[in-house]
Design goal:
Blueprint: H1 12-42, H2 45-51, H3 56-64, H4 69-77, E1 81-83, H5 85-92, E2 103-106, E3 118-122, H6 132-147, H7 151-166, H8 172-183, H9 189-203, H10 209-215, H11 222-231, H12 233-268, H13 271-306
Helix pairs in contact: 2-4, 6-9, 6-11, 7-9, 12-13
Coiled coil: 241-268
Transmembrane segments: 12-38
Keywords: Coiled coil, Membrane, Transmembrane, Transmembrane helix
Length: 321
Amino acid sequence: MVEKTLQKKKGVGCLKIVLIALATPILLFIVGFAFFAVKALLDSDEKVLRTYQARPEVADLAEKNTLTDKGKAILYRADPQFVDVRNFAKYCQVKEGGVEPLACIAPNPERGPFAERQIFLLKIDDPEFADHKYAASVHEMLHAAYGKLSSSKKEQLDVLLDQELSKHQNDLHLIAIIDILNQKTSKEKDDIHSELHSKFGVEYNDLSPELEEHYKKYFVDRQKVIELYKKGGFNSRVRKIDALNVELTSLNNQLTTLKSQLTAYQTTGNINSYNSLVSQFNSMVNQFNAKVAESKRVYNDIQEFYVLFNPDYQPPQEAKQ
């Protein structure tokens, strides 16, 4: 009798492949979930506060800013580091033309892909600016805090931030943020709300009761944080130059319009209309030149340091009557 070659049952191999294909993502999900669950447990606030060895300069940031335990834990996870200009530009990916932020929170490639983002503070020896480290550090801490919120919490908080923003329509510094916000897509607006979250928490008094309650999670006494910011060199000098530049741009536009009207009246021989605008034009020129002088005084005090913010900056020039 001739023996026939045995054949494998069809479908068994395919079934195994299908089962493996189905099981693999499930196993990966379980492993990933377990990894992040363990990581979250190890990185709990209590764990961080118990194990983090704060260097004196970091402990000083936490103490002066009256951080709560939650605020400290967020700051410590970001392990603030003071770095020189070269390393600041490297870690913060500063664009050519200045290092205006003075601080950033960014991934550190040396810490691995799963590490928390790290806070980098520009090391400043100039006594006029050294104290800005307090405001800069908690500004970045609040960025980290915002990033840890759930989507639903962010939505609730964003409404409060938008409402607060609407109360500052005459704030020259925030006007730029409003313009950017109007140009952003819904996906990108997260970055702007994170910026507002940091700015309102560190720089502004008399927020809505809901926002004040929110910031109590991070600060024992937020008024001390604001005082540190207002006394800092960045607020009193750098930001002053920026505000004056905005005012000068507006005045210059008005002067250009008036000058065109004067020229038109002169060309057409409309002497009465021409004379009626002369005093207004001269008054505005004096106002413009007074702000130019103020801007130059501030700039002269910080010229050596301001180059870090804007190396191409040219002080404004006086207008002629």
